[in-house]
Amino acid sequence: MLTGMPSLSHSEQQQAADRIRQLMEEGMSSGQAIAVVAAEIRETHKGDRVTVIFDDEDEE
């Protein structure tokens, strides 16, 4: 899998984690909450520098 996400500061990472917890407390599943926050981050950081992560399966 190839995932492009903006590089986030520690503070931004904390805010994202807090947002995920908030959504889960409101009844959203963890997977949905993560997807929502990831989409929000991508939208907020359009055009910013992106970190590309490959998992081991992509390297074959």
From TrEMBL:
Biased-composition ranges for Polar residues?
1-16
Pfam families membership: UPF0181
Question: What stretches pass through the bilayer?
Answer: none
Source domain of life is Bacteria
Q: Which InterPro entries match?
A: UPF0181
Outline the segment boundaries, as ranges, of region: Disordered.
1-22
CDD domains per record: Tudor_SF
Of which family is this protein a member? Answer: Belongs to the UPF0181 family.
Q: Which HAMAP family match?
A: UPF0181
The protein, known as = UPF0181 protein BS640_09400
The organism's taxonomic lineage, starting at the top: Bacteria, Pseudomonadati, Pseudomonadota, Gammaproteobacteria, Enterobacterales
